[in-house]
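Lab notebook, bench 4. We co-purified these components, and the gel suggests they stay together. Before we commit to crystallization screens, I want a quick structural picture of the whole thing.
Request: model the full complex, all chains together.
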Amino acid sequence: MPAIKATPSTRDRILDAALDLFVEEGFSGTTISEVERRVGLAAGTGSFYRHFSSKEALLRAAVEREVATRMAEIEHDRASLALPDDPRKQFSTIAEQTLRDLRRFDRLLRLMLTEGDRVPEIQDAMMTALPGWGAGSWADRPSTVVTIAALIGYHISDLVGGGVFKDVTQAAFIEALTALTHGTTQS
Amino acid sequence: MPAIKATPSTRDRILDAALDLFVEEGFSGTTISEVERRVGLAAGTGSFYRHFSSKEALLRAAVEREVATRMAEIEHDRASLALPDDPRKQFSTIAEQTLRDLRRFDRLLRLMLTEGDRVPEIQDAMMTALPGWGAGSWADRPSTVVTIAALIGYHISDLVGGGVFKDVTQAAFIEALTALTHGTTQS
DNA sequence: GTCTATAGGAAGATAGAC
DNA sequence: GTCTATCTTCCTATAGAC
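Here is the predicted assembly.
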């Protein structure tokens, strides 16, 4: 099983280009011609339709593949994540992992915001992916909700561009969050 | 100066309808015909063009008016906001106000995400509006950044629909946030 | 300021040759 | 599996009568 195919099929290259375009230009703003152009097919010829039955079918397939890819990555990350014993270090490790997870879902999050009506499956998929957050480590702690909200908020802000937290590094943010949830006096 | 005009001009009703549509369907997904239909003009006749020179001009005008409206609302709210003396109560009052502010910027936030390239002024406008957050009360406190991030995260999640915090009421969230930043032991 | 009519183009999609 | 050609529909935008 080759981890990376040297020559992705045209179908896969269409899915790549399409997801990029849907995220950047939105569904309506994306044209089949532009998709064809990006994968090296002659634009406006409808060669695309040998691979997908319609533009809507393309969106659903692109989302489906992206969900599968990102969830696999996240599960792999979690399996190989070593949790330190020290509670503070454990907390910041999980926080970092959560930010990584969020970044992986960026494009889907954006699609969820812009095309959520068109592909409700995105929302379902993300909701099934996210409950895994901090399971066993954070769950049932009173500060869990605030912590997750803070990580989402921090992440979203720099996704939005410019951002309120432009000058706050990830390390500094996690440090502040750790101090707040685990006491600031402890070394 | 009438606070609410009984009969808004056609121009204003176009701006209302247009903003709704741009937020819901995106710029490309919005048609002039649909705008005309919503304001009671015959669809597809181009009557719209007696009021605006192009679809792009309409977007800019709609954004401009929305920014002005929301910022005025926020300034008005702030001016009439009575801050309690008790630090905990003061904190939760400001937190509630911040959530209100965020809600007011929802539609602009969405447009910023989807049409940011087309109207870069949105980002500038929001960045000038937001530094006012918690000024004088929160600024320079170590937990400020985390607090704002948490409020943004909480808000975004229910904006996205479904949401991770569906079962967490605003009051409960602010309570948890207050406990975390002001100590849980104090009554 | 609204309608009729329409120009002019681009979009999604299909049929058929190669 | 890709291109030529084309159908049909929809869209932005304009000209001109009322």
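The interface with chain A takes residues 25-29, 109-110, 112-114, 116, 123, 127, 130, 133, 142-143, 145-146, 148-154, 156-157, 160-162, 164-165, 168, 173, 176-177, 179-181, 184 of chain B (CB under 8 Å). Worth comparing against the SEC data before the next meeting. Chain B has a mean pLDDT of 88.
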